[in-house]
Design goal:
The complex is a heterodimer. Chain A is built from 14 helices and 15 strands. Chain A is an alpha/beta fold. In chain A, helix 2 links the parallel strand 2 and strand 3. The longest helix of chain A has 23 residues. Chain B has 2 domains: 266 residues, 3-Layer(aba) Sandwich (Rossmann fold), CATH 3.40.50; 89 residues, formyl-coa transferase, domain 3. By secondary structure, chain B is an alpha/beta fold. Classes of the chains: A alpha/beta, B alpha/beta. Chains A and B meet through helix 1, helix 2, helix 6, helix 7 and strand 6 of A and helix 2, helix 6, helix 7, strand 6 and helix 8 of B.
Chain lengths: 377, 404
């Protein structure tokens, strides 16, 4: 959909996903890397596929001029400037705007371009901390946690891609590019869902709940989320509403068909049950027989039977479960392309299906420059 | 006032909860006109099913959860089980550029609002459908909420300690991955439409979008067979790397990505000799002695206030930040600088504190234009001002039950 749009991607890890998103949507993305960059790293490979690679040494004057030529030929520049670095000077909007008035310059930094922390450095863990996400993950009262696979960079790249396209949209009307200032800290706040509303509406500060969910009952009751099963864990939550009612009814029916003890479940009218007002004691009574039942179920069995019964809930998958999921295979999500050594690499495919088709990942902008191979300028 | 970047974009939303409406909010905050369609019989599920509520009392217009994702929009009630209601929905679609829907696959088509039908009268329409599994595949019909899909996508399995259970991420975490990526897809489709005149039918699987946030771990599994495991706050490339308790009951996150940075940390702690300790001289040795190192760091952080310690470490060139609580975010001077929280009058809350997106534009800055709408607040306005209906026509539709 972005055919003909040229993107110059001069980002580090903080911005890799932005370029990948734009590439997946059809833009021609040229990734700039310094000599000696680790191009074998799994994160690099996964998020820089679908781009053409150019090696530039920003410390060399000649390569700086090549960068300017690339910028002048681009519609969008993605940059993650680090104060004091040569790349930061080259990507500076004030320098580029007079030379390239139509260029959209997306400047991605940990905290934004202005403000008291604009010079602070942060990696994934500091960003997840600064954006509030760590305060909501982990056992109550114990160490706040991040996701073991970095998430802040992805949240940032995803927001940066939107910013780039909003500015591009405006350029069609105005003829002018502009600067997009992206804050990684603020991007992480997207992940908090509606947690900020508890502060602003009720004066309450949500906290981490471990393997439980809070914030669904006005009594403060917590609901179990992760249930040990035969080969791992299952994610199952007692919901209300139409969908929750069906799930709860189907679970009881499944348990009954299996001869499981129903306990407090036997007397509940799911038509009337709602999580909004239940007490912790009521929740505990309901959950006890469910825990006994799910302990004997396998992850795949729950996925299949839950689907058959149109129940809400999923197994807690690891990457191996994901890699073998028939749903993803049926939709052609995985895409195989040749890596730099000629061996086939399997990637997450383009994230959207447009007009019934998932665009194929391109193995480079030109046949001479397959992804992962350095196209020396 | 400078026209906003998306001032010419008109959006209609069918659906509710998070994944659809958050896309509309992102577009609305940069100037798009967004109409959120609900019905009185089945309002947006976020209105009643989840706290917080004003004064702690559930009410159709008192949900902070709904408000969080629907500022800067107009709200209309249409009865999609009523033929005239469907006809009005069609007129709205003919008026707009973009339809966003997050119902279960097939529902829109069943009520006569499928893409193929809508495109007959609005061939330039961009329509994005987002749901758990996508519109196709053996489990396309699976119902689901994002909080659980986050587990299927693998994030929960990667949160927690190796010897403990998986951990929850707050709310429908994965929904916001799909909505942010979905917003880009909508804008890309508008770009194609500008160039070619063609509309687009976009199928966004929230599951697949979520996997983009674990793309590296999945790539590594396909390449080597490695199965990524949850590892607390550890990182293979940095040590120390974690969250440490502070004197003021807060926590401080910090990390060192080189031996030089670790030496800076030691100097900032007034324990410069620590950097020369053989147990901590290299990344490998610091990781091998992580428990002892973490205990040493925690002993220091417990004597510090989190914010002051973070400032001191940053000044020394060390990655550090307090672990912000959600309440802390409202007092963060950096976020205040960005005007992340913007207040708008609201009929029930008195004032809604709205959250601005993570980016802004230099020449055409975005804005929160109004608080979240009450149910059906703009029904008459939308029908009259946007669709050009007369007062008599509106009244007739209301009498026929089309606006319920």
């Amino acid at each position: 959909m972005l055919g003909g749009i040229a993107v110059l991607d001069a980002t580090d890890r903080l911005g890799w996903l932005a370029g990948r998103v734009l590439a997946d949507l059809g833009a021609d993305v040229t990734k700039v890397e310094a000599p000696g960059a680790d191009l074998v790293d799994a994160e690099w490979r996964a998020l820089n596929v679908n781009k053409t690679l150019v090696e530039l040494d920003f410390e060399r004057t000649a390569d700086g001029e090549r960068f300017d030529a690339l910028a002048a030929a681009s519609d969008i520049l993605l940059a993650t400037p680090v104060p004091g670095a040569a790349a930061a000077r080259l990507c500076d909007y004030a320098r580029l705007a007079p030379r390239c008035p139509r260029l959209v310059v997306v400047t991605i930094t940990p905290f934004g371009l202005m403000g008291p922390k604009s010079g602070w450095q942060a990696s994934d863990i500091e960003l997840m901390a600064a954006g509030g996400a760590m305060s909501l993950a982990g056992e109550p009262g114990k160490t706040p946690l991040r996701v073991s696979a970095p998430q802040a960079y992805a949240w940032t790249g995803a927001q940066a891609a939107i910013g780039a396209l909003v500015a591009l949209h405006h350029r069609a009307a105005s003829g002018r590019g502009q600067q997009v200032d992206v804050s990684a800290q603020a991007a992480v706040i997207t992940a908090l869902s509606h947690a900020p509303a508890f502060v602003s509406v009720q004066g309450q500060t949500p906290t981490r709940a471990g393997a439980y969910m809070t914030g669904r009952s006005v009594t403060g009751a917590r609901f179990r989320v992760f249930w040990p099963c035969r080969d791992g864990y299952i994610n199952f939550i007692l919901y209300g509403g139409v969908a929750g009612r069906r799930t709860n009814e189907q679970l009881v029916a499944w348990m009954r068909a299996s001869g499981a003890e129903l306990g407090a479940l036997a007397s509940i009218d799911w038509e009337k049950w709602s999580p909004t007002g239940v007490t912790q004691e009521e929740v505990d009574d309901i959950e006890a027989p469910i825990a006994r039942f799910l302990a004997g179920i396998g992850k795949r069995e729950f996925l299949d039977e839950g689907h058959r019964r149109e129940m809400l809930g999923y197994p807690v998958a690891d990457v191996a479960d994901t890699a073998s999921d028939a749903q993803l295979a049926a939709r052609g999500f995985w895409q195989d392309i040749a890596g730099p050594d000629g061996r086939i690499e399997r990637h997450c495919g383009c994230f959207a299906i447009v007009d019934g088709k998932r665009a194929a990942l391109r193995a480079g902008g030109t046949p001479a420059a397959p992804v992962g191979q350095v196209k020396r300028t | 006032m400078t026209a906003q970047a998306l001032a010419d974009v008109k959006v209609v939303e069918f659906g509710g909860y998070a994944a659809g409406p958050h896309i509309g909010k992102l577009l609305a905050n940069y100037g798009a006109t967004v109409v959120h369609v609900e019905s009185r019989a089945r309002p947006d599920g976020f209105r009643l099913q989840y706290p917080p509520f004003a004064d702690g009392k559930p009410g159709i217009n008192s949900s902070g959860c709904f408000a969080h994702f629907n500022d800067s929009k107009r709200d209309i009630t249409l009865n999609l089980k009523n033929a005239q209601g469907i006809a009005l929905a069609r007129r709205l679609v003919d008026w707009c550029d973009v339809v966003i829907e997050n119902m279960r696959p097939g529902v829109m088509a069943r009520v006569g609002l499928g893409y193929d039908t809508l495109a007959t009268t609005n061939p330039r329409l961009v329509m994005l459908s987002t749901c758990n599994m996508g519109q196709t595949g053996p489990r396309a019909d699976t119902p689901g909420f994002g909080s659980q899909l986050t587990a299927l996508a693998g994030m929960c399995n990667l949160t927690g300690f190796p010897d403990g259970p998986p951990m929850l991420l707050y709310g429908p975490y994965i929904d916001y991955i799909a909505s942010t990526l979905g917003a880009s897809a909508v804008l890309a489709a508008l770009e194609r439409r500008r160039a070619t005149g063609r509309g687009a039918c976009i199928d966004v699987s929230q599951y697949e979008c979520g996997l983009m946030f674990l793309a590296g771990a999945l790539f590594e599994h396909h390449r080597s067979g490695k199965i990524a495991q949850r590892c607390g706050n550890a990182d293979t490339a940095a040590a120390p790397h974690g969250a440490y308790p502070a004197r003021d009951d807060g926590w401080i996150a910090l990390s060192c990505w080189s031996d030089a940075e670790f030496a800076s940390l030691c100097r900032a702690m007034d324990q410069a000799a620590l950097a020369n300790d053989a147990r901590y001289a290299t990344l490998a040795s610091r990781q091998a002695n992580a428990a002892a190192l973490d205990a040493t760091l925690a002993a220091w952080t417990l004597a510090q206030d989190a914010a002051a310690a973070a400032g001191r470490l940053q000044a020394a060139g060390v990655h550090a930040h307090p672990v912000a609580t959600v309440a802390d975010l409202f007092d963060d001077p950096q976020l205040a600088q960005r005007r992340l929280w913007r207040r708008q009058p609201h009929a029930v809350f008195g004032e809604q504190v709205c959250c601005f997106p993570a980016f802004d534009l230099s020449d055409t800055p975005g804005e929160i234009t109004c608080a979240a709408p009450l149910l059906g607040e703009h029904t008459e306005q939308v029908l009259r001002e946007l669709l050009g209906m007369s007062a008599e026509e509106v009244a007739a539709h209301e009498a026929a039950g089309a606006l319920d």
